[in-house]
Amino acid sequence: MKICFIPIDNRPVCYNLAKDICSIDEEIELLIPPRNLLGDLTKQADIKNLMLWLKNSPEVDSIILSLDTIIYGGLIPSRRSTETFFELQDRVNSLKEILIAKKAKVYAFSSIMRISNNNCNEEEKEYWKDWGKKIFEYSYLTHKGESVKTDIPEEIIEDYLATRRRNFEINKLYLEWQKEGIFDTLIFSKDDCAEFGLNVEEAQILESMGGKTKTGADEIPLALLSRSIEKDIKIFPVFTEPEYKNCISNYEDISIENSVLSQLELGGFELADSIADADLILVVNNFIEKQGELVMGWETKPFAGKFVPPDKPYAVADVRFANGADNAFVAQLLPRIELESFYGYAGWNTSANTLGSLLACLKVKFKAQKYSEDAFRKLQVVRFLDDWAYQANVRGNIESPCDIKEQMRPYEEKLSQIFKYAFSSEYIYPWNRKFEIEVVILN
Fold first, then answer.
1. Mean pLDDT over all residues of the chain?
2. Over the range 331-345, which residues count as b (16 or more CB within 10 Å of their CB) and which as e?
3. What is the pTM of this model?
4. What beta strand segments (E) does 76-223 contain?
5. Ramachandran area for residue 228 (φ above 0: left; ψ -120 to 50: alpha; else beta)
6. Cα–Cα distance between 90 and 71 in angstroms, integer?
7. Which of 328, 173, 223, 194 is nearest to 8 (CA)?
8. Is 224 within 8 Å of 263 (Cβ atoms)?
9. Which residues contact 402 (CB under 8 A, 6 or more apart)?
10. What percent of the chain has pLDDT over 90?
């Protein structure tokens, strides 16, 4: 099976993770553009050469496409770009011609521009450092239908709304393509949502026009990758805190149960009626009342039960904390892992991020045509080093990007024993910030 994959940007979870997942089945050939063509925190993608790469790529079965990358230069540039709708229109039409000529199944997603609730302009326009929280409040109250009095300068509000309108009009163009049959699947992503907001209102309008929206963003290309791999798999979710599965995760607007069901549907899975009826069990280490987040100082009750692996093959979505693992749960999980029945672990960033990436791993591993156990071991070591060792432990002990090799060594040794996998590793800060690291496995 040949898959063409254009990710959101060059972060490890967008670029490397897709390659690592597909390598579990050596019969999957993943065509992905050179990493230097993709954007990062401060640089947009090389759109012209990405278009050429896509146009000249060989015949494939499916194309997984981040539309924001090819049109704006990435997810972050989609919020920062100053190009007008008419300036973008030629690029959009060129992409349409390429996709029609490819004659492959196209699984695509486009973001609904997020509204970050903080005064941080790291991923937004410059004025967000002064007015971010007030723009969020303006958006929230406007959608809620309440009167809004604000001291935000008029030119800033006008610029912000103009950017939203432009992106919204581009998304409506994609809906027209959907009606023409260009997309096998088209998803509009809702990133960092609240209950109300102009982004939520746009999602509702797109849905009323026949569009399909999903909470999440970074994991959606992986979920679409999963969807493109057609296997019949029945999944039964088991929650460690079943009485709290209706609670809403940080950065999302739906319950953790609905997030699970949404990701299963998008990934092309069937929901089993019972454990007995399931091919695999999805263990969800969910939170009590409020999702925690270690780096933000948001506490929640850690796992206090006794983890007993299911009698069937299973995978673990660790969402008790956002942006990192639940140490109490991982302490019980690791000694009980048996590779014959274990289908993967994830605990990165938001609940949707964790679920979408985990399910892609599960889909590829299940009845793989040419299974590579070494590739699976490597993927699990990377995820535990990132989601557990770094995010839940080491990250909180450093002030800024620095050499963490010695701090990571005890975790490396433990994982090497658990997975019977000899390795050495290096750690890179791809965007020169603490938020993410790149785990480089050296064999």
1. 95
2. ebbbeeeeeebbbbb
3. 0.93
4. 105-112, 185-190, 213-215
5. alpha
6. 10
7. 223
8. no
9. none
10. 90
Coil vs helix vs strand at 244: helix
* Contacts of 157 by beta carbon, 8 Å cutoff, 6+ apart: 135, 138, 150
Q: Strands 438-442 and 424-428, how do they pair?
A: antiparallel
Give the contacts of 93 (CB within 8 A, at least 6 positions apart): none
Q: What is the average per-residue pLDDT within 53-82?
A: 95
Q: Kindly state the average pLDDT of the residues 352-376.
A: 97
- CA quadruple 320, 322, 328, 330: dihedral positive or negative? positive
Q: Which residues pair with 28 in a beta bridge?
A: none
297-340 pLDDT, tens digit per residue, is 899 999 999 999 999 999 999 999 999 999 999 999 999 999 99
CATH architecture classification, 232-382: 3-Layer(aba) Sandwich (3.40)
Per-residue burial over 1-28, b = 16 or more CB atoms within 10 Å of its CB, e = otherwise = eebbbbbbbbbbbbbbbbebbbbbbeeb
State pLDDT tens for residues 273-306: 999 999 999 999 999 999 999 878 899 999 999 9
Task: Give dist(CA 56, CA 416) in Å, integer.
Answer: 41
Strands (E), 72-191: 105-112, 185-190
What does the DSSP 8-state code read for residue 393? I
Query: Is residue 106 a contact partner of residue 62, using CB atoms and an 8 Å limit?
Result: yes
Per-residue pLDDT, 191 = 75
CA distance to 32, 35, 72, 379, per residue, from 15 (Å)? 8, 8, 18, 13
Nearest CA to 4 out of 57, 72, 75 is that of 57
Q: Which residue ranges make up each domain of the chain?
A: 2-226, 232-382
pLDDT tens digits for range 221-245: 999 999 999 999 999 999 999 999 9
